[in-house]
Amino acid sequence: MHEKKDFKKPLIIYYIIALIVVMLLNALLFPQIQRYSVKEVSYSEFLKMLEEGQIKSVQIDETQIAFTPTQQLDDGKTTYFVTNRVTADEKIVDRLIDANVEFAQVVPEEMSPFIEFLLSWVVPLIIFYALGSFMFKRMSKQLGGNSMTFGKSNAKIYVEAQTGKTFADVAGEDEAKDALEEIVDFLHDPQKYRDIGAQLPKGALLVGPPGTGKTLLAKAVAGEAKVPFFSISGSEFVEMFVGMGAARVRDLFKQAGEKAPCIVFIDEIDAIGKRRDNAGMGGNDEREQTLNQLLTEMDGFDAGKGVVILAATNRPEILDKALLRPGRFDRRIPVELPDLAGREAILRVHAKDVKTEPNIDYTQVARATSGCSGAELANIINEAAIAAVKDGRKAVSQRDMEEAIETVIAGYQRKNAVVSPRDKLTVSYHEIGHALVAAKLENAAPVQKITIIPRTSGALGYTMQVDDEERLLMSREQILDKITTYCGGRAAEQLIFGRITSGASNDIEQATKLARAMVTRLGMSDTFGMMALETQSGQYLSGDANLVCSDQTAARIDVEVKQIIANCYEKAMQILTDNKEKLHELAKILLEKETITGIEFMAVLAPNQLPSTFEEQKSDEAGETND
Ligand code: ADP
Ligand code: MG
Ligand code: ZN
User: What's the CATH fold of domain 31-110?
Assistant: First the structure.
């Protein structure tokens, strides 16, 4: 197999290193060869040394005589001498006895060469091999794949006890739950469906923005069906080594086939399911192979067997068409951002995990969190709990929740940020500018709160607006009023100080985005009418748009957008000029109090209106104007 080559390489390098280490060890640990030095002398010299009494001990063999001198050289080594035994000299033994020379072992005893070889080469190599393969196994386990045995994917098998999730954990998303309920039923009793001849979809694709509970839903399906749950993330297929992705897919489906009925869940499937293109070079072969393998496996499956493939993505538009055709992920389950009721339900589910005061108004919190995903709502509850602990309280209060919303939307308060009095004054007028314009416009959402406490997000203050009701559609007038509200901040600075600041950057960005959408996508400009000039890519993510028009049209779009914003700015300026007195008055109050509620705001702006109407306002759809 050609993948194996990649793997053998590091092994060979490892053995070469081991060999070198063994050689070094041999030199260091078995140095006795060098601890002796042997000097050969002639027989006559031997006799001379014997006469002079220089010989301490001797060893006589058949062919040679070895001896040590009485005085060793002091280089640390033991030196012994050898000389050829002259057989003719028969009296040598007597003479040695006479000279009082000791008969002893002089030549150091040698190990048998076989044992020495064994000890100095084979044993260390065996030890290295054992150590090496042990480490290699651990390493590959850490990397997540058993790289020694190919085609063994590490799809994690969750069984019911481990996912521990049920549909009760997923709040809202009733349509998605309904669709998945069918699958759960099928997994409980596939035979029922087989008997009647019904074909259940092989796969279902959960699509929706990040944090709406897609992964959670898949786990809940497994929990409800009480079947094994194989889950793997798309990105896990495309990692490490070439050819692994396809092997993993193959293995995943093999394992799943053995465990049927079961669920295979591929999270973030866009990582492998991206549309294949024939753009010559730069194609991602590895990914394509993986995708092809996935398509093949899905086709090869007998749906009646009880294997259901779920996948999740927040970029359905980039998926390969082949994945979506019937027989594959033919069922598409949208998991959208929660509506008012959904948000309240999600808040309640997560509030179960924390201690709360008994009188929490979840509806109010849900109203103020329009556009938040389930994950963000879970985060709000958690932030509220943290705030309560910081405060030394034992339960979460309504106040904690409200503060947590702002924390999640606008970042933490920077209470000790140093803002110069001059900047504070500018920010006060800026924020009141937004609020005043919003209050005077017919179609703008009511102001809920105005603050000039800086946030970690960089905002020096913001105006929070909460709409009366959940809005799914926006009219042209509402959009224009929204843009006008964005313009209010800058207009107030211009009107009061005659100079403008960088504080409006976020407003400008938002206003431009809206105005542009009006012209290019919403068909709300007089010049172009109902003409799509942009296509949106990634509806669930950033919402990037690509122009689909000529350069001349693009230039005209810019003119149009500029005109819309200019008109709105003029309108905002007009409102502020007409209400300059109130602007001064409110800015002064805000500067003093740093935070004022919508009710306090309206009490000053329209004192003859009954404040009670504001207390009872049915509001939803939050929007805030930063800076
Ligand atoms: P996704 O996979 O869609 O990006 P997740 O399923 O990972 O989102 O959701 C992240 C977390 O958000 C979940 O673990 C859960 O705590 C919370 N959450 C999201 N949606 C819901 C929901 N509908 N009900 C309850 N909790 C939710
Ligand atoms: Mg997910
Ligand atoms: Zn602003």
Answer: 3.30.720
